[in-house]
Amino acid sequence: MEERKRLEEEPPGGKRRSPRAPIWRDVPDALWDDWRWQLTHRLNSVEQLKQIIRLTPEEEAGAAATHRFRMDITPYFASLIDPEDPNCPIRRQVIPTARELEPTPGLMADSLAEDQHSPVPGLVHRYPDRVLMLVTTQCASYCRFCTRSRIVGDPHANFGRRDYDRQIEYIARTPQIRDVLLSGGDPLILPQPILEDLLRRLREIPHVEIIRIGTRVPIFLPQRITDELVAMLRKYHPLWMNIHVNHPKELTPEVTEALAKLADAGIPLGSQTVLLAGVNDCPHIIRALVHELVKRRVRPYYLYQCDLVEGAGHFRTPVSKGLEIMEALRGHTSGYAIPTYVIDLPGGGGKVPVMPNYLLAMNERRVVLRNFEGFISTYEQPTDYTPHDPSRCEYCRNQRPEPGQRGIFGLLQGDAMTIAPEGFQAVHRRLQTGGTETMPLIIGEPLPVVNGEVL
Ligand SMILES: *Cc1c(COP(=O)(O)O)cnc(C)c1O
């Protein structure tokens, strides 16, 4: 209680409520604090934006062309923008610029091949034991780097009752699914009875162990985290929540209060952060961010390399930037404050962790490692290790099936000797064929073509 009070009274901004842009100065607090008022007064035109910030010509061109990807900004979040600074990190996340319209080499509409992994509309089943369930295309505000801008924001392409029925039916008849991740769009934008109905129906499925919600509502619209909503959510435990924060300036007194309500309801909170050029591509910004998150009981979960999404090319950083940031975290701060840096593989390979190398050398006796300070040490391996005996282990005997997805772990378990590209055997049977077979150069999806050129 003491701690919460301290955070609410002395947040980074210094006041309990964030400042408002002058045009909303006279709105009564009761309206300002009402999420319905915030949603209905969102900014979505150049004229409205000009009332609160001085637009650059680039922004004006971008904001006038939002037919490609909708713009909507809650008054609360818009008020966090520095009206005079075109490089404001809050501003860069929600105000479009003309750069969104550039066709950027290598970028794709559905770079993660989510549509290919969907057994029913809106359900992405990529991993053996968990699914991503897209329940709406709507958000409180729209991130300009949205990984799903191909569907998000389009009010004519929303998910509804019929889709939910099919998604839930698929989950119910697929017993290997133990984790359901509600996303979209933003699930917390749904009317509360519809969201509750989804949670209730998922909870009725015996093999669904945990439910997760991925949401940016606590950041864009913290007013939505009402006592009533939280009381509903906590009925469906174990319920986890991942929020999405990219910059410490997003952690206002309002957000702090919303996160405290969620954490007090026993909802474990994680944060997914996207590494964004011009927003947070700096080890010191990320370090400040993760510290502010853990103060609010939010565990930094993933740091994402920005996806290859059409319209978001100007947000991408080299992967080396992410590695530099991870180097600045490990050892320098609490392990709890360190996210996993991941690249979501184009073509639908899923998230792959990337980190600096700490393992320098190894033989059967010793492992040589370096720490964050550059200190190098030796770990002596045991010489008398009694290997684990799977025949006496009930967990080995009761393994979950992962049909077709045992991968490298499967090789270690002796499922097979090799994993090889399609056509590999034919190409390497050169003695018999005289070397005439050729392995297809492109396996899987071809590289995207821009202006007639393969990139
Ligand atoms: C990110 C993601 C998940 C969840 O992955 P975790 O690593 O378990 O957080 C599940 N399905 C899809 C399709 C995803 O993109």
Question: Main attributes?
Answer:
455 residues, alpha/beta, TIM Barrel, 3 domains, nine-stranded mixed β-sheet, 14 strands, disordered N terminus, binds pyridoxal-5'-phosphate, 4Fe-4S, L-lysine 2,3-aminomutase, Lys_aminomutase/Glu_NH3_mut, pyridoxal phosphate
CATH uppermost class of the largest domain: Alpha Beta
Instruction: Compute the number of strand runs.
Output: 14
- The radius of gyration computed from the alpha-carbon positions, rounded to a whole number of angstroms, is 24 Å
The hetero compounds bound to this protein are: pyridoxal-5'-phosphate
Largest sheet: 9 strands, mixed
Report the portion of residues in β strands: 5-15%
Pfam family, one: LAM_C
Protein name: L-lysine 2,3-aminomutase
Binding site for [4Fe-4S] cluster: 139, 143, 146
Modified residues (N6-(pyridoxal phosphate)lysine): 351
